[in-house]
Amino acid sequence: MTESQAEFMDVTDLRIGLFIHIDLGWMSHPFPLSSFKLQSPEQITTIRSLGIERIRYSPEKSDPEPASIEKRDPIPLPTSPEDDERRRRNALLSEQNASLKACERQYSQAAKSYKQALEQATAQPDKSLAQCQSLIADVKGELLGLEECCIRLLSEQSGDRASLHSINVVVLSLLLGQALGMAEADLQELGIGALLHDIGKQELPSRLRWDDEQFSTAERKLYQAHVNHGIAQGKKLALSGHALLCIAQHHEAANGSGYPMRLAHEKISPLARIVALTNQYDNLCNPANPAASQTPHEALSILFTRMKSRFDGQTMSAFIRMMGVYPPGSVVQLTDERYAIVVSVNSSRPLKPRLIIYDTQIAKEEALIVDLEQHAHIGVKRSIKPIQLPRQVMDYLSPRQHICYFFERASSLSAGDDLS
């Protein structure tokens, strides 16, 4: 069907038997195909949760079920203020949950696509590279399509650690590259380099794939060799020079203390400076030994105080502004003594995070995200370790053992409760 013959309908009118076309990127919906005939109520429910109001369909390919009830204008019923507030909360909660599920679906699909690309890298390098390029183009397209975005904390993600780490580094690197004003073509190269920065670890034994302070001198030498393995693999994939530099230099340091070349300052490429920083941040939050993990707030503090000389100053400043003082995943105590977990930070207003507050009067599955920008009388008093929380607060806020990030429209998290 040509575009001029296209017909559209409201998603509220969808019925089984309609042949529909989802005009979104593959990362924006969970279906294996973008054009198909509706077979179940669950498919219709999923489409309605995508945030689109109208959808394209092919009448000649459709054999829809008849509408069971003729549509009539409903007779409005009298409502109380309590009913109105309940409906408002339910609508906000539904939007909040749909936005989170969309982020988690995109993140999981990206992780699966990355894993598939790695599995094909040796036998089918051309196909592997094409899949990586498509993945980054889709993620970048989602990011550039947002006028204003938030960095969003996700629920615990299942999957192999290498995939989760690489997608975290991709997401944070693209966000940081955008904050630094990089051109779209540079963001594509940055994304490829970030995605494949650890590809050389495939050549290492499993026990040596993650840095460990207990490594012997020989083990550390083997571990550090993953950079040279990565360069060799990147050349087989025919990566660009910019992407290869991300692999080659993601462990170099501005003060010359890195490896393998002990490069410093301007000798490290601008893209590699970004990957080096986001890689280190994620390794602090999600180390090989979970007992050594830092909270996002602690990780940012360590980067700025103890590791500041290792990173480019402009890149570090932009990263701190982007992540906020209390990055998503930070557990905090508010100025009114209540506990909360930061779930989102708007990079244009980093001092006003969005959080879920512990409230014994509200079930945790019904807790709304509170936007501190809408509540000037409430602020963050301090960051705390999850282990310091009372047990009931820990169960309610569910601090993440593994920190995973994605991004979403800033407006999707603009809701907030009355905190007076």
The name of the CATH superfamily of the largest domain reads: Hypothetical protein af1432
Mean pLDDT: 89
Distance between the termini: 56 Å
Rg, rounded, reads 24 Å
Based on secondary structure, the structural category is: alpha+beta
Question: What's the total count of β strands?
Answer: 11
H/E series: EEEHEHHEHHHHHHHHEEEEEHE
**Approximately how much helix is present in the residues?**
40-55%
Polypeptide structure, described:
With 420 residues, the chain is of the alpha+beta class. The protein has three domains: 3-61; 95-323, Orthogonal Bundle (Hypothetical protein af1432); 331-413, no CATH class. The chain contains twelve helices and eleven strands. The chain has helices spanning 41-48, 81-120, 125-144, 161-179, 184-195, 217-224, 226-236, 241-249, 270-285, 296-305, 313-323, 391-397, and strands at residues 7-10, 19-21, 35-37, 54-57, 149-153, 331-334, 339-346, 354-357, 370-371, 380-384, 405-409. The strands form two sheets. Strands 5, 6, 7, 8, 9, 10 and 11 form a seven-stranded antiparallel beta sheet that branches. A four-stranded antiparallel beta sheet has the order 1-4-2-3, with no helix packed on it. A hairpin with a 7-residue loop joins strand 7 and strand 8. Helix 2 crosses helix 4 (161-179), helix 3 packs across helix 5 and helix 8 (241-249) packs across helix 9. The radius of gyration is 24 Å and the shape is globular. The mean pLDDT is 89.
